[in-house]
Amino acid sequence: MSLLTRISRLVSAPTDTPELALAQWRALSRQIPLMYVMLVSNTLIVAWTHSAVAPLELTVYVPAALAALCVVRMLMWWRNRHKVLDPQKARTNLRAMIWVGAALAIGFTAWSFSLYPYGDAYLQSQIAFYMGITTIGCMFCLMHVRAAALAVGICVLGPFAVFFIATGQQTLGAIAINMVLVVTVLLIILLSNSRDFADLVASRSAIAQRQLETQRLGEENQRLANIDTLTGLPNRRSFDRQLDLALQRAEAEGRQIGVGRLDLDGFKSINQIFGQLAGDRVLVEAARRIESLRRADTFVARLESNTFGLILAGPIDQQTLVHAGEVLCGAMRLSFEQPEGVIRLTASAGFAVSQPDDTGDQLFDRADYALSAAKREARGSAVVFSEVHAREISKVRHMEHLLYSADLDDEIYVVLQPQYDVALGATTGFEVLARWRSPVLGEISPADFIPMAERTGRISKITQCVLRKALAIGRTLPPSIRLSVNLSANDIGSTTAIEQIVALFERGRGPCQIDFEVTETAAMRDLKQANQSLLILLGLGARIALDDFGTGHSSLTHVQKLPLHRIKIDRSFVAEVTNDIASRAIVKTMVDLCRNLGISCVFEGVETEEQLQALIALGGTVMQGYFFGRPMAVDEVETYLRRERTPVQREGRAAG
Ligand code: C2E
Ligand code: MG
Ligand code: MG
Fold it and tell me: What is the mean pLDDT of residues 572-580?
């Protein structure tokens, strides 16, 4: 870079970053008014000391004009000191300031020189001193804009040195040299200072930039953490927070709010039949429909796969919720046109109204309970949590407590239901079914207490109790009779539970063989673990039946993967076999499937002669159901078997 370019750069207007221009302007707007006060005061003092010797123009008019110019500039800077300028304007002001500074420097220098001839040696020295000290002061005030400091320095120092050396006065020439040296050093310091200032501003603006970026990323993270990326709706986390807030607000204002949970029924099968992409599109469309129907004060979120949550801020009553539920479920019943075909589904919804002192979880649990009631009793529509539900819950809680504290060996007993082989014309085994006789509540159906025991983790103890009893009964029965014990998902999903079953089994084994039944849903929870558990049981000589086939996933893959010896076709198919062609076709397929896989097939819930005949015609052999015998008390089994062996009985069954 040539010297000339360097100099022109040094004295040119600031071309740096906008941040630097603004920072320079801010710094100067504090310092420049002070500079003008100093300049005007020093000038007035010099004018006063020369008032007796110099003409009026030089002691009054010219300094007054220069001072007035300074005051105008000072007021301008003072007025603008708190203004928020844009960088361009700041640059323009700085550029103007450099030119004005240079012009004033020349003006004041010329005025000072014009006074020189009138004074004696003292006054002449004062002129030199005034010019030197004022220039240094001004350069200090302008230090943040190096071009301005340089302009003032050069405009005064050049003429100053030439003038005083030219006077021929030794002392004044020496002062001029002193002045050149001091101002040169001062300029070097100011230049490095102005570089430091520029660096400081640059690093400060880089930090601010990074902070902004961090804040932006933080906000983006926060947004992503709170929305469901598929539908764009708020997610579960946001729903929970919103629910707590809405409850607090409602509590403070003495209002009630409503909470809803809406589930797309049978959504899993949409994924299976049409593919996950179609499933996703249905969810997006469902979210859009809900969004388009919501009131401004209703908050909608996607809670999990096919479940949406609603917070209705009010005003809320039972009627409003019923209406909201009907509208939403109605919107979901409209078909979803997809490239894969038209998808039709229903949605069930549960709603609950807040009570004083409710927590978000309590309120949501009530909506959830209403949803299960809707799924159970009014699939495809909405149910609002009511007093009846509250009573049901407290009954269930009471029952749970009683089951938890029950003496299982005493209160759980078993009944046996025969499994009849039509081809052999004989009962080949019994299913062992648990019953609970609570001293407080009386007889309780397994349909009630088994799911409850599974939920509360009590089921393994019940399984062990039933197995102990089955083993004891097995010791009293002929070796040809097999007993089937039901296992739950918790049993086959836990190695500890299986170890306990194995220990019991080995301790109590009798002549009669024990088999186990598992449902497909139970096996599905953890197919790998279920497979391992069933193989262990198989190793004990037990056989495994897949219970209630046709009600779960009914997947052939599972049938093949599990070590099964038998499939139990659910009674829903048997009930329809006499009057529904489709059911008959399904039953036929299942029978063929079992035959091909080399496993036996049992029909559950055979209640009538017609059903039996239909099943035999389709190739069925092993039957279980009220037609052959209801679940019976243990002491009735012996009589049942004895009666079966009588010729009359056998003929009757064989004819059936
Ligand atoms: P499951 O294992 O499928 O048992 C068959 C159920 O169908 C029994 O109901 C039985 O009484 C009933 N059933 C049999 N034949 C007919 C018929 O012809 N018509 C009709 N309508 N029903 C018939 P139960 O005893 O009420 O048991 C219900 C469910 O409870 C069982 O279904 C089983 O899943 C569970 N369960 C029962 N005992 C146990 C047990 O000891 N352990 C486990 N984990 N579950 C059990
Ligand atoms: Mg069973
Ligand atoms: Mg069954």
Answer: 90
> Which range of residues forms the domain containing residue 583?
565-625
* Residues 478 and 514 occupy one common structural domain: no
Residue 55 has pLDDT above 90, yes or no: yes
pLDDT exceeds cutoff 70 at 2: no
Query: How many structural domains are present in the chain?
Result: 5
Mean of per-residue pLDDT scores for the chain: 89
Same structural domain, 57 and 11: yes
Quick check: CB of 446 below 6 Å from ligand 1? yes
Distance CA 526, CA 54 (A): 109
> Is the minimum distance from the CB of 87 to ligand 1 under 6 angstroms?
no
CA of 568 from ligand 2 middle (Å) equals 8
- Final residue belonging to a domain, choices 385, 404, 423: 385
Residue 429: strand pairing partners: 419, 482
Q: Is the pTM of this model over 0.70?
A: no
CA-nearest residue, atom 30 of ligand 1: 446
> Same domain for 110 and 77?
yes
Looking at the CA of residue 627, tell me the nearest atom of ligand 1: 18
Residue list, CB under 5 A from ion ligand 3: 547-548, 604
Q: Is the CB of 466 under 6 A from ligand 1?
A: yes
For residues 280 and 355, state if they share a domain: yes
Q: What is the mean pLDDT of residues 408-428?
A: 95
Task: Calculate how far, in angstroms, residue 511's C-alpha sits from the geometric centre of ligand 3.
Answer: 25
User: Does residue 418 lie within any of the structural domains?
Assistant: yes
- 31: pLDDT strictly greater than 60: yes
pLDDT at 12 over 80: no
Among residues 35, 22, 4, which one has the least CA distance to residue 152? 35
Q: Which ligand is nearest to the CA of 605?
A: 1
Whether residue 188 sits in one domain with residue 49: yes
CATH code of the domain in which 338 resides: 3.30.70.270
- Residues 644, 456: Cα–Cα separation, whole Å: 41
Residue 631 CB less than 6 A away from ligand 1:
yes
Residue 100 and residue 108 in contact, taking contact as beta carbons nearer than 8 Å: no
pLDDT tens for 508-521 read 776 668 999 999 88
Q: Per-residue pLDDT tens for 191-244?
A: 888 788 888 888 888 888 999 999 999 888 888 889 999 999 999 999 999 999
Q: Is residue 222 part of a domain?
A: no
CB atoms within 10 A of CB 525: 13
Q: Is the pLDDT of residue 558 over 80?
A: no
CA 433–ligand 1 middle distance (angstroms): 6
630 within ligand 1 shell (Cβ under 6 A): no
605 in contact with ligand 1, CB cutoff 6 A: yes
User: In this structure, are 156 and 171 located in the same domain?
Assistant: yes
23 and 106 share a domain? Answer: yes
User: What is the DSSP code string of 35-87?
Assistant: HHHHHHHHHHHHHHHTTTTS-HIIIIIHHHHHHHHHHHHHHHHHHTTT----H
Distance 319 CA to ligand 1 centre (A): 40
* Residue burial 217-255, b: 16+ Cβ < 10 Å; e: rest: eeeeeeeeebbbeebebbbeebbbebbeebbeebeeeee
Amino acid 13: pLDDT: 45
- 459 alpha carbon to ligand 1 midpoint, in Å? 15
638 shares a domain with 620:
no
Q: Is residue 225 part of a domain?
A: no
Q: Which of 340, 604, 607, 651 is labelled catalytic?
A: 604
More confident residue, 52 or 23: 52
Widest pairwise Cα distance in the chain: 157
Of the given ranges (6-15, 241-250, 462-471, 564-573), which has the lowest mean pLDDT? 6-15
Check if 651 is active-site. Answer: no
Of 324, 350, 385, the domain-final residue:
385
Tracing tokens 């009538």 back to the chain, one arrives at 608
Question: Is 395 contained in some domain?
Answer: no
- Cβ 270 under 6 angstroms from ligand 1: no
